[in-house]
Design goal:
By secondary structure, this protein is an all-beta fold. It is built from no helices and 26 strands. The radius of gyration is 19 Å and the shape is globular. Bound molecules: copper (II) ion.
Length: about 350
């Protein structure tokens, strides 16, 4: 199961705003339409114009390639100052399973752009509620500066239905001295059609266990050492196949505990560089013992510790999330999380100017 190891490697790795940022020329100063997600309400971003989603489905190779772009990224620009692309929606064209997510950044000529300019991307299924936080859409994939690769777990997949709407939220920044032009975020997603001749996959569900419980994930991190924790209640019997963590710079440790059982599920010590900038968070797998068992009613507590050496409070500088894959004992119960989309979401080039 070596390939599964990179699955849960720290997700959505984002970095704090660059200290010497130069403001980018704002194209339109408008308020982002907000979803219960990562960022606090009331953040203002300029909107990047002309960004679209291109979805190429290769039915022979069973691979979808999604491209979001183009995006121009001036040097030394924080995520708050960067004009950000509006949310994009990918409408799923088949019934089946998404098996893996391989993200990368490229320019117009196809050359690689360093992952460090991706603050984060998050994929949300608008047609389903999250099983731990039903106030949120189902959060099916995320990546950040590390360009986390979510490998396939043999025999498993994330079930989708035709016309499911996957909302793609992308936030860019550029802490480097090099400007990048016409950048595209590309995510390659192998899939299996339900009607195909492969064996049916078992369903898995990404589990985001957040120190902010079911609220927005970002929070302020004070100077020095600090700890934040939050709980979430599991409503289904099942197993966790493995768990990794998501922290930002100066994050040191994520601990996941089962409070009811007084058991530590995983203690994940982050790898940081000499400045305290986050390099990676390890992954703990439970695949060999058949998964870590959860029962309905279990209370999970996630704690994140930071050691911020800057001497300043870093506004919205932190996240603390344990991220894993959950397999319910009775998958039919998860059908209740399905919902229809009635509300209108951002469309490219629309709805932001006012
Ligand atoms: Cu984050």
């Amino acid at each position: 199961m070596r390939s599964a190891k990179i699955l849960f490697v720290s997700l959505l790795l984002a970095r704090v705003a660059h200290a010497q940022e130069k403001p980018a020329e704002p194209q339109a100063n408008v308020q982002h339409q907000h979803h219960p997600g990562f960022m606090q309400e009331g953040m203002h971003h300029a909107i990047a114009k002309g960004v679209t989603l291109d979805a190429k489905v290769d039915v022979t190779a069973h691979v979808v390639t999604l491209r979001v772009g183009p995006m121009n990224l001036p040097a030394h620009t924080s995520h708050m100052k960067m004009p950000q692309p509006p949310d994009q929606v990918w409408q799923i064209p088949f019934d089946g399973w998404l098996l893996a997510y391989h993200p990368k950044l490229v320019d117009a000529s196809g050359s690689a752009v360093p992952g460090t300019v991706l603050h984060h991307t998050a994929f949300w299924n608008e047609n389903r509620a999250d099983f731990l936080c039903p106030n949120k859409e189902e959060h099916i994939f995320g990546a950040g500066s590390e360009m986390t690769d979510w490998a396939e777990v043999p025999g498993y997949g994330y079930h989708v239905q035709e016309n499911d709407r996957i909302r793609i939220e992308t936030m860019m920044y550029n802490p480097t001295a090099t400007p990048y032009e016409k950048v595209y975020l590309e995510v390659v997603i192998p899939f299996q059609e339900a009607a195909g001749n492969g064996t049916a996959r078992k369903n898995l569900y990404p589990a985001w266990m957040d120190v902010k419980s079911c609220g927005n994930s970002s929070y302020d991190v004070p100077a020095g050492k600090s700890e934040k924790s939050g709980t979430v209640t599991v409503k289904y019997d099942g197993v966790l196949l493995g768990v990794g963590g998501h922290l930002h710079d100066y994050g040191r440790q994520i601990v996941l505990e089962d409070v009811l059982r007084k058991e530590t599920v995983a203690t994940l010590d982050a790898k940081v560089n000499e400045k305290g900038l986050l390099e990676s968070v390890p992954v703990k797998l439970f695949v060999e013992q058949g998964g870590y068992k959860f029962s309905a009613g279990d209370v999970l507590k996630t704690s994140a510790t930071y050691d911020n050496p800057t001497g300043k409070l870093l506004r919205e500088g932190a996240m603390g999330i344990a991220v894993g894959y959950f397999v319910p004992a009775d998958d039919s119960k998860m059908a209740a999380l399905r919902r229809e989309t009635h509300h209108v979401h951002d469309m490219p080039g629309m709805s932001h100017d006012h």
